[in-house]
Amino acid sequence: LCTNSLSGRVLDEKNQVLVGATIYILEVNRGKVSDLQGAFEFSELCSGEYTLEIKFVGYQTKQLHVAIQKAVTVEIQLVPEEKLLNEIIVSDHIESVGKASNFQTLT
Asked: What is the pLDDT of residues 80-106, one digit of tens each?
């Protein structure tokens, strides 16, 4: 019977909570989503070493190795993902594409 637990919070680089981050324990195929306080909790874990994978949109995925003995609490800080976006040009220019050759007049 496994009675250990793992709990924690997921934060951004400014120590603000990240609501809706996914926390996944690879070895046992179990996942949680951080709540309104950025918190999560896993229960009924056996003693041992586990790998957590933490994901949140716009942030780099993080893997964290944790040794579980009784109750363990972790604080996880994610780093923003820096992606370059393609350039978008907005213009007020209208270009005609021609007239339709097949049309009917409704009366």
From this structure: 998 766 777 777 766 666 665 665 666
